[in-house]
Write a structure and sequence with these properties.
This protein has helices at 121-132, 138-154, 182-203, 206-220, 240-243, 247-254, 261-264, 270-284, 295-311, 314-324, 355-358, 363-383, 402-415, 431-448, 451-460, 473-476, and strands spanning 344-346, 352-354, 465-466, 471-472. It has 486 residues and is mostly helical. The strands form 2 sheets. The protein has a two-stranded antiparallel ribbon with strand order 1-2. The radius of gyration is 21 Å and the shape is globular. Mean pLDDT is 78; it is low at 1-97.
């Protein structure tokens, strides 16, 4: 046993079917600094290993390829910016983005909701004030967020019908068969919606809001290009590709609450139409199969919780939080180990780990991936005055926060990846991948003010970036404890 982990996991390799497809998507400039730091790696990985670079771009997710081996990084020599090319999930380097100065955040942000799925109105208002004052880490992340939004202003809109539908009766359904690149299109479009909507909230500039609504209309409502709000992809199963992309649509839409362009665009109330689309989407997600108990289950819960928050659907919220606690829809054949905590195991010194994720061929990234899924629901709950962070899971024999024990387990390896001994090790984890992994520690540091978690963030370099839902996490979620100091 090493650090409290059973020896059989120390050199594990996992084959079998991949939960995720490989992808490559557009990359805006994602370089960053932690009060001055930077990285120089750029790579392409499979789904969950994340596209990464030093002076530019990333995204994606990583997973196991056919035969169980995850794809290795392929260095990219040019910065990918601008409009998408015919290559799925990429942007050409034919443009450099809008050259106008970065707009200054308004001190009176557009009136809207009390919270925006993952972050509160008052929190963002305080962030805007700090950006105006030039304070780190927020100002550095803000500059990058606006740069991404400016790229999205000129990005070619994409949809699920772009590649045809050779095996589908309905081309408007999300699919991943044959030559379809719906997942790649979803990454590009949902990211662009979030980026432009957030830029609108900070600047009040209507061009950002109108672009976000145009993209939402193209993806969700245009009769020619829309995605049918159907979470049942195939064979009564929902792919994780939906859970790690589509929630960015309603996260972005939350920042556009009440904007007049919702009705000006077509004359109809597109905001209400979009809310109906969200409700239909989550209602269509089929009942889970018994084997969904690891990160895909946690991402399912995060999707349901975030949609319920956007819709202000209290019943759905309570159901999602009940599922997160492991008290609802537990695995029928293993009621003593209810998902999403069925794979949790205690380690030494009050720590804990996710056994299933460590057993994977790329256990380092998957363990963070599972932690992030759990954290996303906890962030939604925080906006509704529900504390999931302090919850002690039914599979945790100790006291205190089970989620924090996962952070305590992972933080030493985040600072010194060479110590990682499970899966394939950490040799292929790039500097920028560490930055994306560190984004969840940015959230944890804001909550617990842990010097250890801050050390993780600083070792990776700010601003941190979440390729799933949040984007530039150092902008929206850094140092919440400093947001009330005037």
């Amino acid at each position: 046993m090493t650090d409290g982990i059973p020896r059989e996991l120390e050199s594990s390799r996992e084959g079998g079917q991949a939960e995720l497809e490989t992808d490559r998507r557009s990359g805006s400039e994602r370089a960053g600094e932690d009060d001055g730091g930077s990285d120089n790696a750029r790579s392409r990985r499979s789904v969950l290993a994340f596209l990464a670079s030093g002076t530019a771009g990333l995204t994606g997710c990583f997973g196991v390829g056919s035969g169980g081996e995850s794809q290795r990084p392929t260095p990219l020599e040019t910065e990918l910016t601008g409009t998408p090319t015919s290559t799925s999930g990429t942007r050409s380097n034919s443009r450099t983005g809008r050259q106008s100065p970065t707009p200054t955040p308004t001190l009176t942000p557009v009136p809207s909701r009390d919270h925006y799925v993952y972050v509160g109105h008052d929190e963002l208002k305080a962030v805007a004030e700090r950006v105006r004052d030039g304070r780190k880490p927020w100002v550095n992340a803000y500059t990058r967020a606006i740069r991404d939004a400016d790229e999205a202003l000129e990005m070619e809109a994409r949809s699920v019908v772009d590649d045809g539908a050779p095996n589908w009766d309905d081309p408007h359904r999300f699919g991943k068969d044959e030559n379809r690149h719906d997942y790649h299109a979803a990454i590009d479009m949902t990211t662009a919606v979030r980026d432009t909507a957030l830029a609108y909230w900070f600047t009040g500039q209507d061009e950002y809001a109108e672009r976000a609504i145009d993209l939402l209309y193209h993806w969700c409502h245009d009769p020619e290009t829309r995605m049918k709000p159907d979470g049942n992809m195939a064979d009564n199963n929902t792919g994780i590709e939906l859970f790690v992309t589509i929630p960015k649509l309603w996260y972005g839409a939350a920042f556009l609450d009440g904007h007049p362009y919702w009705t000006e665009k077509t004359g109809d109330d597109l905001e209400a139409t979009f809310a109906d689309w969200v409700g239909s989407f989550v209602s269509s997600i089929p009942a889970p199969k018994y084997y969904q108990y690891n990160n895909i289950w946690a991402w399912r819960i995060a999707t349901l919780a975030s949609a319920a928050s956007y819709l202000d659907d209290q019943s759905r919220l309570e159901k999602a939080f009940c599922m997160w606690r492991g008290k609802c829809e537990t695995v029928a054949h293993d009621k003593e180990r209810p998902r999403p905590w069925s794979q949790y195991r205690p380690s030494l010194s009050g720590k804990g780990y996710l056994k299933r994720e460590l057993a994977r061929e790329d256990g380092f990234g998957y363990h963070v991936y599972g932690m992030k899924a759990l954290t996303m629901t906890a962030e939604v709950a925080r906006q509704h005055d529900v504390d999931l962070y302090g919850y002690n899971a039914p599979t945790d024999p100790g006291d205190g926060s089970t989620l924090r024990k996962l952070f305590e387990f992972m933080s030493p390896y985040m600072k010194l990846p060479s110590r990682w001994q499970w899966g394939k090790g950490s040799d292929s984890v790039t500097n920028f991948e560490m930055k994306t992994y560190a984004s969840v520690f940015e959230i944890a540091h804001s909550l617990w003010e842990s010097p250890e978690y801050l050390s993780v963030v600083r070792s990776a370099g700010r601003p941190t970036y979440d390729i799933r839902h949040l984007g530039w996490t150092s902008l929206t979620h850094a140092n919440r404890f400093d947001l009330s100091d005037g």
